[in-house]
Each structure stands twice: as structure tokens, then as C-alpha cells.
Amino acid sequence: MSRVVVLGVFNADVAFRADRLPKMGETIHGKSFHLGPGGKGSNQAVAAARAGADTHMITRLGKDAFAEMALEIWRDAGVTPVITRHADRSTGSAFIFIEEHSGNNAIIIAPGAAASMTNADIDERAKLISEADVFVTQFEQPMGPAHHALEIAHKGRAITVLNPAPAMDMPEGMLALCDYVTPNESEAEALTGIKVVSLDDAQQAAMALVARGAGAAILTLGEKGALFHNGSETVHVPVMNAGGVADTSGAGDAFNGGLAAALARGKAPEEALRFAAATAAISVTRHGTAPSMPSEAEIQALLARS
């Protein structure tokens, strides 16, 4: 089976739905509340596993109820946990506001134990990382371990995928370790200074990321789909229609997990892009983040009719 290794964070998602965010000092009535599993790394690992990849998740957890939630969702999805647990720190958590009429979201994260990850955590798992078919990371955990893990994966056999979220400055040369970098519009703007509104903007931003060293850039563009550029070829994949939009909060993670699973099977970039787009399209028809990730059979069914 194709192997995906993800370095990242698990967060317990505390999600509120309301017509709008309250103003400072204001209290408003919400439409609903939900507590469930999330965190970009964890969501991507769940998505990759449900999409058919042998998936391993590297992180730190606390010794609390939220950690048990993480282990349960990974067990159900088929993710192998590669973790340490720490009694002196909490497991990560996230506040998610979901706008009732649109499904759009705003998020605050507190990574907890995962914020204390170091390069030593990575060195202990160097063999697993270097021998992966695909290695994926983001920026919810500290930058140092993400950079170090990309170095190990790049030197090994792994295809490297960096989802630069949340967007922040990265060390010089880090993009050169990435076979794929996968920002959304706002992250691409933060990294390149190019405001991404149109497909032309997206191509310019992708070209800028490749010029800085990335092997290829894939920009996720919401309702405009996704755009791939590798320096010589540009491919646009429109958004797929899997039904009405219920919640967009897991879409980017679904895309990255689906992309990793497809690349791990040796799919060409355009085919992997379509697989990732289908994964994301199904996820937004459901509430929640990790619980919204579709199975491989569901993804293939959507691709067959799209």
C-alpha cells in the first residue's frame, strides 16, 4: 500500500454556527454548537487514510480527553499514530466560527503539546519520514521541526508536500525542499505579495513560488477550483459539484489529504489534482472537519460522473 506520513497538529474543534461574529464585548445567540476532531495535520491524515493510503501521523498530544478523541478518530480512519504524550501540556484545541448563511469560517487555534515539538521528535522518526511515498506538513506546529522533516524527506525517497498554513515567513531555501506547495489565495498572497482574485493572479503567484524554488505550486481557489504550475505547465481544475455546501472548514485539508493519497499511488499531477478536488468537493457537503472526509469509493464515484 502507498504510504503517506503527515507531521502536524491535532486540535479538538469547538465549532459555533451563527449569523455573524459578535463584536467585542457583545454576546449573541448561536444556531448550533459542535465539539469534534480537527487540526490541519490530523485532518489531512484522516483524509489520506480514508482515500486509501497507509497513513502515519506524527505529533504530540496531552494526556486528556481531547487526546483520546484524537486516537479514536485515527483508529476509525485507519491512521497509525506516531506520537508522544505529555501530562504537563494540553492537547491542541481550536475555536471555529461558521457563518450560517454561507458556510464560511474563521478559526483560532491553540496547538497545546504539539507547540513544543522539536527537531529531536523528527530525528526519532527519520526512517519513517525518509521512506514515505509522500511526506506532508504545515505550519501549525513549530517551523523548525517542519523544516527539518522536509530536509529528511527531500533527501530520502519521499515526495514532499508543504501546505503553508497558517501563512508565515519561512527560512531561506525551504521552498526548494518542496515538490509541491499548496497555499490557498490568502496564503499565496502572504507568501508572494500577489493578491489572488483571478486565475491570472493565481498563475502569477504560482510562478513566483516556483521561481523561489518549489517544484510545483498548487493554489486552492475555493469556488474557482485549483491551479497547478510547475514552471513549464499550468493546469486549472474547476471545482466539482458534489451537492450543496454545508461547511467549508475542512476543504483545504481534504484537498491536501486527497492529493497526498493520489501522489503516493504514483498518479500524474493532473490526475492527482482531480482526485484532490473531488475529495474536497465531497467534504464541503458535510459538517465538521475530520468527520467530513470521504472514502476512496465516494471519491471515485464522483470522479466517474464528473
Automatic annotation (TrEMBL):
Cofactor(s) of this protein: Mg(2+)
Pfam family name, one: PfkB
Textual note on the cofactor: Requires a divalent cation, most likely magnesium in vivo, as an electrophilic catalyst to aid phosphoryl group transfer. It is the chelate of the metal and the nucleotide that is the actual substrate.
Main location class: cytoplasm
One GO-annotated biological process of the protein: D-ribose catabolic process
A single MF term (Gene Ontology): metal ion binding
Enzyme Commission no: 2.7.1.15
Domain Carbohydrate kinase PfkB: 1-295
Residues binding K(+), per UniProt: D247, S249, S283, R286, G288, S292
Pathway: Carbohydrate metabolism; D-ribose degradation; D-ribose 5-phosphate from beta-D-ribopyranose: step 2/2
InterPro entries: Carboh/pur_kinase_PfkB_CS, PfkB_dom, Ribo/fructo_kinase, Ribokinase, Ribokinase-like
Annotated positions binding substrate: N11, A12, D13, G39, K40, G41, S42, N43, E140, D253
Origin: domain of life: Bacteria
Signal peptide: none
Subcellular location per the Swiss-Prot or TrEMBL entry: Cytoplasm
Keywords: ATP-binding, Carbohydrate metabolism, Cytoplasm, Kinase, Magnesium, Metal-binding, Nucleotide-binding, Potassium, Transferase
PANTHER family reported in the protein's UniProt record: RIBOKINASE, SUGAR KINASE
UniProt record similarity statement: Belongs to the carbohydrate kinase PfkB family. Ribokinase subfamily.
Quaternary structure annotation from Swiss-Prot or TrEMBL: Homodimer.
Name under which the protein is recorded: Ribokinase
Protein's organism: Pseudohoeflea suaedae
Encoding gene (name): rbsK
